[in-house]
Amino acid sequence: MLWWNDSMARSNDALSPERVFRLFVERTEKMKRRRIFDDGVPRIAYKQTVGGSNYRFELSAPDEEDYRSFLLDLRPFLLVGDPIHFEYVHNLLAKRLTDKALLADCRHNRKDWDRVKRGHEAFNINGVSYEAIDFFQAVAYGDIFHVDADKRAWLATLPQSVQDWARFNLYSVGLNAARVISPQANLIRTALERGVLDLGDRPARAKQAPAQAMRHEEPYSTEVQKGN
After folding, report:
1. How far apart are CA 109 and CA 113, in angstroms?
2. Global pTM?
């Protein structure tokens, strides 16, 4: 199954800004209709036991097939070159929003997106620094969808404790990304409804829209319990 192939990305230039914004909202709503979201954005938990150089992870994670379906919906938001790539859409919003409150929320969400990609843990392996998004892609490419044998082989070279963390990180990054995408879609919907986007052929009206629920406010950390 193909999942994360740059050749699959469509040209952003082929779509008008308004179509890009509406597509972002549509795809977000589609993603949120997945069974994994039946009770809202799910949380995951893990217990970590540390003893010398030994680590033990216990995951309470979503159903694997549900999560695979969710990853397929998440893919275009992360894929450079896709019209709804989060960072591309953010840049469009930053240029076209005329509402100062919504623009501030948009920038807040971008900072949160960068934090999700960066993660909480810094890893330096053989002199190379890796972020959470690197491990996310390695597990997704190599373990889940089996489209990158090199990433799968690289994962196998890591200490078992790091491999365990990387698989936990798959859930953490994916679900935290969804927690930022959702309020960004709310922001876009509100901006379109209020006419505070400069869409080129349609003059924007400088209205002040309420900022509530337009920015990501939930903590990024998953529920963590340290073992004894």
Report:
1. 6
2. 0.77
